[in-house]
Each structure stands twice: as C-alpha cells, then as structure tokens.
Amino acid sequence: MRRILVVDDSRLQRRILVGSLRKWGFRVEEAESAEAALALCATSPPDLVLSDWVMPGMSGPEFCRAFRELPRDGYGYFILLTSKNEKAEIARGLDAGADDFLTKPVNSGELRARIKAGMRILAMQRELSEKNRVISETLEELQSVYGRINQDLRQAREIQKSLVPELERSFGASRFSLLLKPCGHVGGDLVGLFSPGVNRVGFYGIDVSGHGVTSALMTARLAGYLSGTHFDQNVAMERLQYAFYGLKPPVEVARMLNARLLADVGTDEYFTMVYGTVNLYDGTLRLVQCGHPHPLLLRADGSAEFLGGGGMPIGLLPDLVCDSFELELKPGDRLLIYSDGITECPTADGDMLGRDGLLDLVRAADPAHSGREFLDDLYWRMRESMPKGRRIEDDVSALLLEYNGV
C-alpha cells in the first residue's frame, strides 16, 4: 500500500486531506511543519508528499528542496498545495523539485486524479528501477563470464603459439622464417616445418575455413598430423630402416589429409594448403597447392613468379584435385608462402591488396631485411596500406624459404 505524507500547518486542512486519502485506500501520515516532516522522511521515506506552500518556518519549496537531498532508494513524488498561480512562482516550485501543483481550495476530484497520476509515475519509475537492477546484475554476470572466457582464450592463444615453437630455423646456409598473426585471440592459420634428416625439409602453410575457436581447434589437430617432434605421428613421413624417416610425396600427403578430414564425423571445416619438400643439397623443390594462394618465387636475379594453378581445398570432396609441381632452386632464391589474409587485405583506395599489391610490398621492402625482419616488414607495410583505423579481419600467416644451398 502506498504511503502519503500530508504536511500543512492548518489542522483543518490536514483533516480534510487525510480523510479523503484514507477513504481512497492510502496509508497516510501527517505533519504540522516542514521540520517535523523532514524528520519523518529521514526515517521512513513516503511514496508521495502533499505539502502546503506557505507555512511557518520552512516554506513548501524549501521543504521540497531539502526532501530531494535526503538519501533514498526510490523516487518520491512531491505535490505543492498553493493559492499562487503566477508563472514565476510555479517556476520557483518546479526549480525546487516539485512534480505537480494543486490550487487551494483543493477539489476532491482533482486531488484524486493528481494522486493517481503521481502513483502511475511512481509505478513506472519502480518498474524501470527493477529492470535496471536486473540489467545491472545481468551485466555483472556477463562481465564475469566474459572475463573467464577471455582468460581461457588467452590461454588458448598461448597454446596455439606453442604449435609454432620456432619462428626461424636455419639449415646450414638456408633458412626458414615464419609469421603467424591471428586476427583475434586465436585463429585458423598455421605454418610450420619439420626435418627428418640432413638437408631434407617438409614445410607448409594452412588456412582453415572460418575464424576463432573452431578453426583454432582444427589447426591444433593438423599440427599433430604434421608434427615436427613426433615423427611416428606425422602423416607426411614414412619410416625407413634403422629408425630413419623419409618424406612422402606432397600429393600423397594432401590426399591422406583429405581422407582423414572427410572421415571425421561432425567436422564441417575445410582448409587450404601449400605443402612442399625441399632437398637443400641440390635445390629440388616439390609443392602441392590445395586452394591456397599461389606461392611467390623470388629469384636471385630479381625476377618474380607466382606458382601453381590453384587446386581445391582439402576436406570438401573425396576425390581431391590438387596442383603439384617441381622446380629447382638456385642459391639466392626465395620462396614465399602466404595466406589470403594478406592478398585480401583491404586497402585505403577501397580495393584489396591482391597479388600485384603483394609484389609491390615485397619489392618495396628494405633490401637489408631478411628472414623474420623481411616478414615483419611485409606485415607492417600491409598494415600501412589499410584504411586508417581499420582492424585486420582475417588471420595472416606466411613462410619464407631463403635458399642458399648447404
């Protein structure tokens, strides 16, 4: 039941108002002065105050101002009773914090209507407060959940970084360098390499469909299939005599991965890949391209060539159609494998970087940079070509082979 406080120095006026309000079902308290009313409001705040304007001591507007300064949980509706009808006086009352006015002598019907209007406003205010409370509690809960998810994702990022433990590895005079930049906490790109013996290296660049946690889980599985530490689990290796291992042909590796992915029930993801093997002794390079961007061959004489015909991604159809080729590297040649996060990067002119743009970035790179410095410079130049303030929306990865024989 709503509580109403009637404040008036006239006992007769209080009796008339209190009688009407109680008849309408309200709980009513009364005070003969603003000072006494403030004491009541401080201990038990009413829902609505009905106060006279002119009283000995503190006036109605002064009481209203003091009432507004009292601490309370909800809103208190305030109606001033006055014989004043000048606009300046009404403005003064509103400035003091009054919500409504009633002109004396008070009409019973008008009083009841104004009280009901005030109660509707109080009901809406309390409903809004309750909704705000629920929203605040929900936000706190969501922030707590987000905090836990964010912590898990940071840990997942560290785990994913461990899939590429070495960002640079040298084999005599030749060197492999890796770049991996997820667009979120975790991503669906993967680059890596492994070597079962002297001068023989297998290497790859992979881009799993989609982004985020699902793609990251797939990269973790693929890292196991192409493990650089557990050769017995690596599908790209074959066991030879006396615990030695050899590298399987790239096309065979692509087909095995395709068969495994299609055999996994409930897996809808697919991935693009360039997988290659190189004999660092004679420069023989064998590559298979499965829907991945065309590798870029940078010859020592300054010429450049995009390799391959495309092929289809792994994990879509049982009969994999991929593009395989073989070539010979010369000392000073470089091979760049990269994901479409680079070539499909938006540029300031509203277009995508594309292969020509990538080639421009490569040629604009500092000639003194090599290895990881070259890849970092390439990534920085790609970011600089983007519209200002634009976030990278796709994972970026690259592998650079710098061949200089053994």
TrEMBL record:
<dbReference type="InterPro" id="IPR001789">
    <property type="entry name" value="Sig_transdc_resp-reg_receiver"/>
</dbReference>
<dbReference type="InterPro" id="IPR052016">
    <property type="entry name" value="Bact_Sigma-Reg"/>
</dbReference>
<protein>
    <submittedName>
        <fullName>Sigma-B regulation protein RsbU (Phosphoserine phosphatase)</fullName>
    </submittedName>
</protein>
<feature type="domain" description="Response regulatory">
    <location>
        <begin position="3"/>
        <end position="119"/>
    </location>
</feature>
<dbReference type="InterPro" id="IPR036457">
    <property type="entry name" value="PPM-type-like_dom_sf"/>
</dbReference>
<dbReference type="InterPro" id="IPR001932">
    <property type="entry name" value="PPM-type_phosphatase-like_dom"/>
</dbReference>
<dbReference type="InterPro" id="IPR011006">
    <property type="entry name" value="CheY-like_superfamily"/>
</dbReference>
<dbReference type="GO" id="GO:0016791">
    <property type="term" value="F:phosphatase activity"/>
</dbReference>
<dbReference type="Pfam" id="PF07228">
    <property type="entry name" value="SpoIIE"/>
</dbReference>
<dbReference type="Pfam" id="PF00072">
    <property type="entry name" value="Response_reg"/>
</dbReference>
<keyword id="KW-0378">Hydrolase</keyword>
<keyword id="KW-0597">Phosphoprotein</keyword>
<dbReference type="GO" id="GO:0000160">
    <property type="term" value="P:phosphorelay signal transduction system"/>
</dbReference>
<feature type="modified residue" description="4-aspartylphosphate">
    <location>
        <position position="52"/>
    </location>
</feature>
